[in-house]
Write a structure and sequence with these properties.
heterodimer, A: mainly alpha, Farnesyl Diphosphate Synthase, 2 domains, two-stranded antiparallel sheet, disordered C terminus, B: mainly alpha
Chain lengths: 654, 72
C-alpha cells in the first residue's frame, strides 16, 4: 500500500512550508534554519528536511491528516486537497514547535531562550492554518483548548521540581510524548473539517498509543544522555522497578545502565513499545483506517525485527544493520572542555588575542600588545596544561620589549604587563632565568608607588620611557583591576617589594571599600569583581600587607556587589562565565546558578570557541575608542569557568 | 555481593567506558581495574561479571552505539 500522499502534492505542500519560513524576518529565519537541520538529524532517514517523519523509524507526524482524509475517502476534490494542504502545514509547524521546545529544555544542547518568540509564532501560525479549514463555531475549538491546555500543563509540570519528585516509581508516569498534542490537534481538525468529529475519541486513543510507542523507543535510545542530565524517563523507571532500585534519590547513571544489563530490560522495554503499536493497529482496523493499519503493521514488523537483531546476549544471526538500543552519550561538560582546550592550544602564540591596532597608532601601520595572551596563559596554567614553551616566549618578548604595553618604543611601561610577567614567571621552563630581568622596572614601579601612594596603570620615570611620556595620551589611569593584577604577581615575587605591595594593597582596598566596583576602570565589571576577590584573598592571607579594617571593608563592599550582580539576568556566554568565576573567587559557589553553565555551554561553537565579546575599551582610528574583543580570550574565560565547576573524570565511587 | 548497586555501577561503567571495559575483560588487568573502583575481585564478583559480559559486549557492539554522526 502506498503510504505517502501523492508525491506531487506532497512536494507542493513542502513548497508552501518553505515559502512560509523563507518570508520570516532574518532573526527568526536563522533560528528556523537550524531547526530544520536539527529535525532532519533526528527524524529524517535521509538527512533531508523534506523527508522528516517518513518511514517506520519515526512517528507519522506529518501524514496523519492526509491518511485520515484518504481512509475516510474524502480526499478527492478541491476541498479535500485544500484541507490536506493546510493541515500538512499545521503539522509541520507543530513539529518544528515540538523540536524548539525540546531544545529549550535540553541543558546540554544549543537552543537558547531567544527562541521563545519562535515558539509563539509557530503556535499562532499553526492555529491559523487549522482555522482555515475548521469553522469557528465547530466544537473542535473546545477540544483544541483542552489539548493545548493539557500540553502546556505537561510542560509546566516537567519543569517543576516538586511535581517531578512526586511522580512516583511507576514507569507509565514518565511516559509523555511531546507529539501527543500535535497529532491530536491535526487529526481532530481533519475530522472536524469533514464533520466526523464523533470519531475523535478513538482516533485520539490510537494516535496516543503511536506517540507513546515511539516515545519509548526514543527514550531508550537517549536514556544515557537523559540520565546524565538528571531526567528520569520511562525506560529508566522501568529498569529501576525491575531491579528494585528506588528513583528517589535519583540513582546514578551507571547504576541504571548496569541494572539494565543484569535485568535484561532492553527487550521488555522494546516489547512494551511494540505492544502499543499493536494496540494502535487494532484500533485502526476497528475504525477501518487501512493506511494507518498498514503503517502500524510495517512499524510493528520493523521494531520486532530490530528487537530480534539485538536481543541482549543473543545478537541476531545474519542481521544486516540494527539500530542502537541505547546510544552512549558523551558527557557535555568534559566534551565542551576538550573542544575548548583544542581551540585554545591550536596556536601557541595566541595571535588572535593580541590587542592589535592597524589604524596607525604611534605612526606605525601595525602595533600590538600581547598582554591578553598573558591572561590566557595564566588560565591554561591554572588548569594544569603544559604551556611552558608559550610562557617562555611571552616572558622573553616582554623583557625584550622593556615591559612596554605595545610593541613600539613610544609605548609606555604599564603595571598590567609587569603583573602578567610576574604571575607567569614561576611557570616558565626555567623560572630562575627571569629572576633579574625585571629588577630595573620593579625599582621604577617601587618609586612610582612610593611617590603616588597607589599603583599606577602607566609608570613614569622609567629608563627609556621619556619619549612615551611626552608624546602619548595614556588612557585608563587609576584602574583598580590593573592594580589587582599587579599585586597578584608582585606579592609572590622575590626581591623585597613588600612596601610596594603594602602601599598599593592598602590603596586598592580603600578604593574598593569606598566605591566598590567603581574602582575598576578598564575591564568588564564582572571580570573586575572576580579579580578583586582574588586579590583580596591574597592580601588577607598575609596580614602584613593591609590592615584588617581595610580588608573587611573591601570584603563587605565586594560581597554587596556580588549579591547585586547575581540577581541580574545575564545574556551572554562571557557574562555567565565571569559571574561563575567571581563566585568561585569569592568562595561563594553556592550562588552559582546552573542556568549560567547552560548559558555558556549553549553558545560554544563547533570548533570549541565562543564568539569574542567586549573585554576592554581600546583606542581606534586615533580619535575614538571601541571595544577590544577576542575569540581566544572569551573562550579562555568560558573554559576557565566551566573547568572550575567540572567534576573529576567519571569514576565509580560506591 | 553485599551491595548490588555497586555491581550495577561496575557494569554500567563497563558499558559506557570502552577503556574500562577492555580492562575488566582482560584477565591480567581485571583485578586492578576492580580494585580501582573499590570492588573486591572475589570469586563471586568475577562469576557475576562473566555472566554479564556477553550482554555488555552485545550492547556495546551495536553499530550505532555512539554519538550521531552528521556532516553538512
Amino acid at each position: 500500500m502506498e503510504l505517502e500522499a501523492d508525491p506531487r502534492l506532497f512536494s507542493r505542500w513542502w513548497d508552501d512550508v518553505d515559502r512560509l519560513f523563507g518570508a520570516l524576518p532574518p532573526a527568526l529565519f536563522r533560528q528556523i534554519k537550524l531547526l530544520e537541520y536539527d529535525l532532519a538529524l533526528r527524524y529524517s532517514p535521509t538527512g533531508q528536511f523534506h523527508d522528516i517523519f517518513s518511514g517506520p523509524d519515526h512517528p507519522p507526524v506529518l501524514s496523519v491528516p492526509s491518511w485520515l482524509l484518504s481512509d475516510l475517502a474524502i480526499h478527492s476534490g478541491t476541498t479535500g486537497t485544500e484541507t490536506e494542504r493546510r493541515l500538512f502545514g499545521a503539522s509541520a509547524l507543530l513539529a518544528v514547535r515540538v523540536q524548539t521546545i525540546e531544545g529549550l529544555r535540553d541543558a546540554g544542547g544549543f537552543t537558547t531562550g531567544d527562541r521563545i518568540a519562535l515558539v509563539q509564532w509557530l503556535s499562532d501560525r499553526a492555529s491559523g492554518e487549522i482555522a482555515r479549514v475548521v469553522s469557528r463555531d465547530s466544537s473542535y475549538w473546545d477540544e483544541y483548548e483542552a489539548i493545548t491546555g493539557e500540553d502546556a500543563g505537561r510542560l509546566a509540570a516537567s519543569a517543576d521540581p516538586d511535581l517531578v519528585a512526586g511522580a512516583g516509581d511507576d514507569p507509565e508516569a514518565y511516559l509523555v510524548s511531546a507529539f501527543t498534542a500535535p497529532l491530536r490537534l491535526v487529526a481532530l481538525a481533519a475530522l472536524a473539517a469533514v464533520d466526523r468529529l464523533e470519531w475523535g475519541t478513538r482516533v485520539a486513543e490510537m494516535l496516543d498509543k503511536v506517540a507513546q510507542a515511539y516515545q519509548v523507543i526514543g527514550d531508550l535510545a537517549s536514556m544515557h544522555r537523559d540520565l546524565e542530565l538528571g531526567h528520569v524517563s520511562y525506560p529508566a523507571a522501568f529498569i529501576a522497578r525491575a531491579a528494585g532500585i528506588p528513583l528517589r534519590p535519583a540513582p546514578r547513571t551507571e547504576v541504571i545502565l548496569g541494572a539494565m544489563v543484569v535485568t535484561g530490560s532492553v527487550g521488555p522495554i522494546m516489547e512494551s513499545a511494540v505492544d502499543r503499536l499493536r494496540s494502535a493497529r487494532d484500533i485502526a482496523i476497528e475504525l477501518n483506517l487501512p493506511t494507518f493499519a498498514a503503517f502500524l503493521s510495517d512499524a510493528e514488523a520493523h521494531f520486532e525485527g530490530t528487537l530480534a537483531s539485538w536481543t541482549v546476549g543473543r545478537p541476531g544471526e545474519g542481521s544486516a544493520r540494527s539500530a542502537a538500543a541505547v546510544r552512549i552519550s558523551t558527557p557535555t561538560l568534559p566534551q565542551a572542555l576538550g573542544m575548548a582546550e583544542g581551540f585554545l592550544l591550536a596556536d601557541p602564540t595566541f595571535r588572535e588575542s593580541w590587542e592589535t591596532h592597524r589604524e596607525g597608532m604611534l605612526g606605525r601601520s601595525e602595533v600590538a600588545s600581547r598582554f591578553p595572551a598573558g591572561l590566557i596563559l595564566e588560565i591554561l596554567c591554572r588548569r594544569g596544561l603544559d604551556v611552558r614553551g608559550a610562557i617562555d616566549e611571552f616572558l622573553d618578548f616582554t623583557v625584550a620589549n622593556a615591559f612596554r604595553y605595545y610593541d613600539h618604543p613610544r609605548s609606555g611601561v604599564d603595571s598590567d604587563t609587569i603583573g602578567a610577567f610576574l604571575r607567569l614567571r614561576p611557570h616558565a621552563t626555567e623560572s630562575g632565568v627571569y629572576d633579574r630581568t625585571a629588577t630595573a622596572v620593579l625599582e621604577c614601579l617601587d618609586r612610582n608607588v612610593q611617590e603616588s601612594g597607589a599603583i599606577p596603570v602607566w609608570l613614569t620615570g622609567c629608563a627609556g620611557g621619556e619619549e612615551s611620556e611626552s608624546t602619548v595620551i595614556a588612557l585608563g589611569e587609576g584602574c583598580g583591576t590593573v592594580a589587582a593584577h599587579l599585586l597578584l604577581g608582585l606579592a609572590r615575587a622575590p626581591g623585597g617589594h613588600e612596601a610596594t605591595v603594602t602601599i598599593g594593597g592598602e590603596s586598592l582596598l580603600e578604593r574598593i571599600g569606598s566605591v566598590g566596583l567603581a574602582a575598576n576602570v578598564n575591564y568588564p565589571p564582572l571580570y573586575a569583581l572576580g579579580t578583586f576577590f582574588r586579590a583580596l584573598g591574597l592580601l588577607a592571607a598575609s596580614d602584613a600587607h593591609a590592615p584588617t579594617g581595610s580588608i573587611e571593608s573591601a570584603r563587605a563592599s565586594l560581597n554587596d556587589e556580588l549579591r547585586r550582580v547575581v540577581s541580574r539576568r545575564r545574556v551572554t556566554a562571557q557574562d555567565g562565565a565571569l559571574l561563575m568565576l567571581a563566585c568561585h573567587e569569592a568562595n561563594r559557589e553556592d550562588l552559582i546558578d546552573p542556568a549560567w553553565v547552560e548559558q555558556v555551554l549553549k553558545r560554544q561553537r563547533s570548533d570549541g570557541s565562543w564568539v569574542g565579546e567586549p573585554f576592554a575599551a581600546a583606542p581606534n582610528r586615533g580619535r575614538s575608542v571601541s571595544w577590544y574583543s577576542s575569540t581566544l580570550l572569551t573562550t579562555a574565560l568560558c573554559y576557565d569557568a566551566l573547568a572550575r565547576g567540572a567534576k573529576p573524570p567519571a569514576a565509580v565511587t560506591v | 555481593m553485599d551491595d548490588e548497586s555497586k555491581f550495577y555501577a561496575l557494569l554500567g561503567r563497563a558499558l559506557i567506558d570502552p577503556e574500562f571495559r577492555e580492562r575488566i575483560l582482560d584477565n591480567d588487568r581485571q583485578a586492578a581495574a576492580l580494585a580501582e573502583i573499590d570492588i573486591n575481585p572475589s570469586a563471586e564478583v568475577i562469576g557475576e561479571l562473566k555472566a554479564s559480559i556477553e550482554a555488555i559486549k552485545s550492547l556495546a557492539s551495536h553499530e550505532a552505539f555512539g554519538p550521531i554522526q552528521a556532516v553538512t
